[in-house]
Amino acid sequence: MTQPTDVRGEHLRTALSLAASGVPVLPLRAGKVPFGNCRRCADNACGGRPNMRIPGPCTCPAPCHAWAAATTDPKVIACGSWRRAWLRASAVAYHPGGAGLTVVDLDNADAIAWAHEHLPATQTVPTTRGEHWLYLGTMTSANGVRPGVDIKSTMAYARWLGFGTGTMTDLPDAVHALTAAKPVAPAFTTVTVPAPAGGGQCRHRTPAFLERGIAMAEQRITAATSGVHNAVFRTFLAVLSTHGRCGCLIDAHVARLFTAAQAKGESARHCADAWANARTRLGL
């Protein structure tokens, strides 16, 4: 559903103001997710970095490529294709790493209590369910570093919710330590299921068959332009219905699917939930 005209105008004014202060911005559509790639840029055909499964950047005038679309150029932000995106936008987002910042995203009261006990005070911004703690400095982004805690900095976006309160302090070692203690790769669950009845060789173990299936699943997620949550779930369901009963899937396959989903704005928690729900639907 589109926003009222005055709200859409406010989003654009906010974006231009942030850009003027050196904060790279991008529009978000409903569901707090970025706009999908246009047809020209689908599957990084425009020359993005598909081998690294990282969106963009490219010279497309549309707000393509998720966080990599973030810009401080007012001519881009107010150009025709971006204006059309603002007409559908539900919020303004920014690239913390591009602004030299790290956001510690605290998703609930328990996470906030933990932060007060273990992290130095800094600028704090209220969110729908918790708080964003903003620090000066950048680092590698990571989701689920501990219960209810995500880190958003380089190669990530955060919703702009205002300036908050407090004085921003330097990024502490305690935040860096969170990713040192937990791998940055998305969390996933290894599929372990009984071997096929009859003891015959599983046809899915043909490398080309399995690789083609995983690659097609990645493309389906990447190409989703709306309803990303549902697209991810349906894709997980399709993969598991074909490959989930024979033990073919390994950690690397599931990680590829999770990475594709997170490039579209899904959190590690949402990926894990969608995977678990798909397994439950199929009785795995």
Explain this structure to me?
This protein starts with a helix and ends with a helix. It is globular and about 60 Å long. Helix content is 38%, strand content 14%. It is built from nine helices and ten strands. The longest helix has 17 residues, at 207-223.
List the main descriptive attributes of the protein structure presented here.
284 residues, 6-stranded mixed sheet, 4-stranded antiparallel sheet, 9 helices, globular
Please state the overall shape, judged from the principal axes of the Cα atoms: globular
The rounded Rg comes to 20 Å
Total number of helical segments?
9
Intertermini distance:
36 Å
Order of helices and strands: HEEHHEEHEEEEEEHHHHH
Helix content: 25-40%
- Give start-end ranges of low-pLDDT stretches: 49-54, 183-200
Compute the number of strand runs: 10
Write a concise synopsis of the structure shown:
The protein has helices at 5-20, 74-77, 80-88, 109-118, 173-180, 207-223, 228-243, 251-263, 268-282, and strands spanning 25-29, 33-34, 91-94, 101-106, 123-126, 131-136, 142-146, 149-152, 158-159, 169-170. The chain has 284 residues and is of the alpha+beta class.
Helices and strands in order, then pairings?
Blueprint: H1 5-20, E1 25-29, E2 33-34, H2 74-77, H3 80-88, E3 91-94, E4 101-106, H4 109-118, E5 123-126, E6 131-136, E7 142-146, E8 149-152, E9 158-159, E10 169-170, H5 173-180, H6 207-223, H7 228-243, H8 251-263, H9 268-282
Parallel strand pairs: 6-10
Antiparallel strand pairs: 1-2, 1-3, 3-9, 4-6, 4-8, 5-6, 7-8
